[in-house]
Specification:
Structural class: mainly alpha
Largest sheet: none
Distance between the termini: 138 Å
Number of domains: 1
Strand content: under 5%
Order of helices and strands: HHHHH
Helix content: 55-70%
Shape: elongated
């Protein structure tokens, strides 16, 4: 069976002919180019002595380079150790703060419950009865009430007798 090529196929082949491409256009499977897929030893070109010496030097590490790398690894290890220690301290502090906050909330709740219990147990009528009957207290009359300007605090200290 003869293959017929169109002018378009010829132009396509000419356009890609100058490129170093392994890919071959078309819809039929072809044999691999053995030169392209050959093992590394077959494709190697001879290199100059200078290039060979440079490659040999690059393969070997001298003492200074080894010392530099060792120091760099030790410094990095030291810094990472400090960093991990600081992260651990931060985590422990956060856990401690969380524990103290929950303890504070529990104490506030207990305090509020105790305050509610105390205020609900006080009978104001009983306090009034004891004050009037047993202690002889009575309500203030009109001339006994003295209004004093305060400084904004909840209580005042009496430094001298109040004039009558």
């Amino acid at each position: 069976m003869a293959q017929y090529r169109t002018s378009r196929d010829n132009r396509r082949q000419q356009a890609y002919a100058g490129r170093n491409s392994v890919y071959i256009h078309g819809n039929a499977v072809r044999k691999l180019d053995e030169r392209v897929y050959a093992p590394e030893e077959r494709r190697k070109k001879p290199i100059s002595n200078t290039a060979r010496k440079n490659r040999e030097k690059a393969r070997h590490m001298n003492l200074g380079y080894v010392l530099f790398l060792s120091c760099a690894v030790m410094v990095a290890g030291f810094i990472l150790t400090i960093y991990i220690g600081l992260q651990s301290d931060i985590t422990n502090s956060i856990k401690n703060i969380s524990r103290l906050e929950s303890q504070l909330n529990a104490l506030k709740l207990d305090n509020d419950e105790e305050y509610s219990r105390i205020t609900s147990s006080v009978d104001l009528e009983e306090v009034k009865r004891v004050a009037i009957q047993e202690l002889g207290m009575k309500y203030a009359e009109e001339g006994q009430i003295v209004i004093v300007e305060g400084g904004g605090s909840d209580y005042m200290r009496q430094m001298a007798d109040i004039p009558q």
